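Hi all, posting the design record for the shared folder.

TITLE: backbone redesign
STEP: 1 of 1
STRUCTURE INPUT:
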């Protein structure tokens, strides 16, 4: 069935004008067409100018943010071996547990801290990065999502450290990489730092994750909680999949190998009947993307 034909709208009343001669009509059409082309060119030019101004404003805002941000720390390879705490066997087999697990736990634990930001928090650890803030001696690594509220509000964080996490200090966030979920914090106490693995992890490596998860039932934080496992897969030299269990509060803590060397930063964990169980640490090399300057 066809739609009914609607009558035309009433024609508006115009002043009657006699038609111009044919030659004048053609000239008028040319003028109109030429004017239309000029108008289109003008509109395109104005639109392009507006886009350029918008991009310039965005770039200025980015530059202002970079100028106002603290300088990025630089990786230091000049620290003495004593700074890293007790050395374990550098030739230990990376595919098996260390001969002295208790010694490894104690060594790594010296570098691990508890971080509080607003109503939340997580774990962090000291790494061999030069601190540049006034009075700062240690740079901590953690996840961005652990400190995002404080970073966005330009406020400091609280850091607990030492035996039984009995000591407390103020931490200043000096760098954030939201895209890779990483952040850097400077504190004044001088903490032992973790050594990084010189090579990417391989499937089958023994691993230990350390962090400060909270038991929701007992409402307590389990300081420097450890879990053990093996590397199941390394994806794109970025994601380290491990069978070492990660719990809420482990975020930002270290994943180390059997030599106590840093593999990555504990970042993601999920479990479910349909999805399976996943414990993932972002490789420490990702810090070089935007937070620190690394040697090639």
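Okay, here is what came back for every position:
SEQUENCE:
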């Amino acid at each position: 069935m066809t739609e009914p034909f609607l009558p035309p709208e009433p024609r508006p009343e115009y002043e009657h004008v006699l038609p111009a001669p044919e030659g004048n009509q053609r000239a008028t059409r040319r003028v109109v067409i030429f004017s239309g082309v000029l108008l289109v060119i003008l509109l395109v030019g104005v639109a392009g100018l507006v886009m350029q101004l918008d991009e310039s404003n965005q770039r200025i805002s980015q530059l202002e943010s970079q100028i106002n941000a603290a300088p990025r720390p630089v990786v230091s390879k000049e620290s003495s071996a004593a700074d890293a705490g007790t050395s374990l066997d550098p030739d230990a087999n990376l595919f098996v547990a260390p001969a002295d697990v208790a010694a490894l736990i104690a060594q790594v634990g010296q570098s691990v801290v508890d971080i509080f930001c607003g109503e939340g928090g997580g774990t962090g650890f000291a790494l061999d990065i030069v601190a540049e803030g006034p009075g700062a001696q240690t740079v901590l690594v953690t996840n961005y999502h652990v400190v995002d509220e404080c970073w966005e509000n330009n406020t400091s964080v609280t850091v607990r450290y030492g035996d039984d996490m009995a000591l407390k200090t103020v931490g200043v966030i000096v760098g954030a990489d939201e895209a890779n979920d990483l952040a850097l914090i400077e504190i004044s106490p001088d903490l032992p730092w973790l050594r990084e693995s010189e090579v990417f992890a391989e499937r089958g490596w023994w691993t230990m994750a350390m962090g400060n998860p909270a038991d929701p039932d007992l409402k307590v934080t389990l300081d420097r909680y450890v879990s053990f496992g093996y590397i199941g897969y390394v994806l794109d030299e970025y994601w380290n999949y491990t069978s070492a269990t990660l719990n809420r509060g482990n975020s930002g803590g270290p994943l180390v190998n059997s030599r106590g060397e840093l593999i990555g930063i504990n970042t993601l964990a999920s479990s479910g009947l349909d999805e399976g169980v996943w414990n993932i640490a972002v490789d420490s090399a990702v810090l070089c993307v935007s937070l620190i300057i690394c040697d090639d």
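COMMENT: The two ends are 74 Å apart (CA to CA).
Let me know if anyone wants the other runs.
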